[in-house]
Amino acid sequence: MSGKNKVDRNGLTEEEFLRSYRPGDYERPSLTVDMLIFTVLSSAPENYRRTADKTLQVLLIRRGEHPFLGSWAVPGGFVGIHESIDEAAKRELKSETGVDHAYLEQLYTWGEVGRDPRMRVVSCSYMALVDRSQLLLQAGEDADDARWFDVSSEILSEEITPLPDGERRERRIRIVLENEDVRLEPVVQVTEHREGHGRTLSREVEDSGGLAFDHAKMIQYGIERLRSKLEYTDIAFALMPQLFTLSELQRVYEVILGKPLLAAAFRRKIAGRVEETEEYTREGGHRPSKLYRYRQAGEELDREEERI
Amino acid sequence: MSGKNKVDRNGLTEEEFLRSYRPGDYERPSLTVDMLIFTVLSSAPENYRRTADKTLQVLLIRRGEHPFLGSWAVPGGFVGIHESIDEAAKRELKSETGVDHAYLEQLYTWGEVGRDPRMRVVSCSYMALVDRSQLLLQAGEDADDARWFDVSSEILSEEITPLPDGERRERRIRIVLENEDVRLEPVVQVTEHREGHGRTLSREVEDSGGLAFDHAKMIQYGIERLRSKLEYTDIAFALMPQLFTLSELQRVYEVILGKPLLAAAFRRKIAGRVEETEEYTREGGHRPSKLYRYRQAGEELDREEERI
DNA sequence: TCAATAGTGTCTATTAGACAGTATACC
DNA sequence: GGTATACTGTCTAATAGACACTATTGA
User: Fold this and answer.
1) What are phi and psi of B107, to 5 degrees?
2) Which pLDDT tens digit goes with each residue over A4-19?
3) What are residue B204's phi and psi, to 5 degrees?
4) Alpha-helix residue ranges (DSSP H) falling in chain A
5) Average pLDDT per block of 10 residues along chain B, 308 residues long
6) Confidence at residue A308, expressed as pLDDT on a 0 to 100 scale
7) Distance from CA of residue A177 to its chain's centroid?
8) Is the CB of A123 within 7 Å of strand D?
9) What does the alpha-carbon distance between residue B268 and residue B288 come to, in Å, rounded to a whole number?
10) How many other CB atoms are found less than 10 A from the CB of residue B256?
């Protein structure tokens, strides 16, 4: 079955074929990884009573070279010929943040022809979720001009155009990327095209807002994936420190989903994913909050609910 | 902001830089697209009373060249330097099946170093869903040895290994690919690695079962994606003809999800996605079934539920 | 007539949403 | 004491699961 001993039309076995094989000379795209590195920042509350605000942040670097000199870009780099794409992603994450272990997920591979004006470049984007406390310890932040940006996104408009045998659905989404010095507001169009049995989804950058390449699309895609995974996986805990309060966790959900949640329902929902500790926070002029830790799904409570 | 007029450290504007830019000579991986083309087959019932069975199928081709000469592989090909990855995917779909419009979705990009013994090849996998009636009309099935295989998958085992600060979760999944002449049974290991804050998912081919390259992984990933999308999107309709009965639709869900569904609940759930017609099937020794068509989400019923 | 499927009504269990009410720290 | 948050109890609405029951055909 494996074809090891079969001979091809030239009478070669697989071993002979591989020994004589010379890669062709046709042009190949360059391959890069681009890293959407997300974290959550707690910013100091306005007064002693209020709790800390949470904001979702993404790491961008300021380009020091053409093209897009001076623009902000998602950090990334070329995939070496002797490393896997995953390894390249880990390497980039480490070099940008100093973080070794993080939630890491491949998102999407961007392969439009003109996306880099220099040459054909295909970029494989990854999402990394890092918890702030790790970042403070680990070195990180290369020599290059790397900065965290607060991220949010909103739907600007949604338009449905009927077609002879289907429809086109176009949503315009504004991303806001902001820190003390810079505010970028790219706009991305997400188009769903249905015709007969066909159905494809595509994204266009309507306004780069000062972001390099097609990175506005990448960021929009990353936020979308982060949001949807938040709702049906444990992904949020990758953004939390070892110990956290349920209110903090809820605020992380809220800032990423962009909507308020009801405390009672939220607590019911995540009850099985967390484990209480004996510790409490003592900060602010209000009732202290119990600290929890993440409970891996395996460690189910094996003691049955004790009944009378 | 765009850096068009800025000069870099060599005193070049972006235009000057691009004019003088020469792509480096470093080695680049080759880039291919690999197409997981799924369809659903209705096979003739055993006797006049029973309804047609549905099976999920995937298209594989028999390799006529080294490496893996004679093995079955997911159809695919190189991405041209002047076409986008999406275009390459559409081109491959068309050349293998003759189908122009289909549900098409990028799945994952496979970039392990040794996955092709000839040279470094990175493969971007896509999933295409085509409805059988299209296939019969359109030409398709190239000169090459292409065959449809019934697909199913089952979890063989699940093992959780505790680690100092986390755990490793390993599931072994057997895929069964079968037609009248061939039966392949690759086994794939899906490992979730958690350590501290880190969390990554990886797949290994435990037993290729006669499939070329790492295509067992690709197929397993494709089935997983198809299954999960079936539950929260309209993806199933891409596998259906224009007109279908709700029982047929349910059987498609059942064969893909690998479990029986309750008719009442199923009908409630998809009620908003379909639109009834005045037509009925008349086949088999039992009550005829009303034919439905897919209703795009936009065309909500604008007539309010009529009440008294 | 009857086997096999189509389709509906309804009871129950589970889950999500809403919101009031109690608890407790700090200034 | 008053404020801001922590946390719980409970009512209601919506959804999913179970299953019985009716409807309709071709041989």
Assistant:
1) -105, -60
2) 678 888 888 878 877 8
3) -130, 145
4) 14-20, 85-97, 132-137, 215-232, 246-257, 263-270
5) 71 78 81 98 88 95 91 96 97 93 96 94 98 73 78 94 90 97 97 88 96 97 95 93 96 96 96 93 89 75 31
6) 23
7) 14
8) no
9) 20
10) 24
Confidence of residue A305 (pLDDT cuts 50, 70, 90): very low
Task: DSSP letter for A211, please.
Answer: B
Does residue A268 approach strand C to less than 7 Å at its CB? yes
B79 touches chain A (CB under 8 A): yes
Please list, residue by residue across B143-176, b when 16 or more beta carbons sit within 10 angstroms of its beta carbon and e when fewer do. eeebbbbbbebeeeeeeeeeeeebbebebbbbbe
Nucleotides of strand C lying closer than 7 angstroms to a protein CB: 2-10, 16-20, 23-27
Beta pairing class for A121-129 and A30-43: parallel
Residue with tokens 């009908």: B267
pTM higher than 0.70, yes or no? yes
Task: Give whole-number Cα distances, B302 to B278, B291, B292, B306, B308, in Å.
Answer: 20, 22, 19, 11, 18
CA atoms within 13 A on the CB side of B186: 26
Cis amide leading into A45 (omega within 30)? no
pLDDT in tens, A136-163: 756 555 556 899 999 999 999 999 999 9
The residue behind tokens 């990758």 is A238
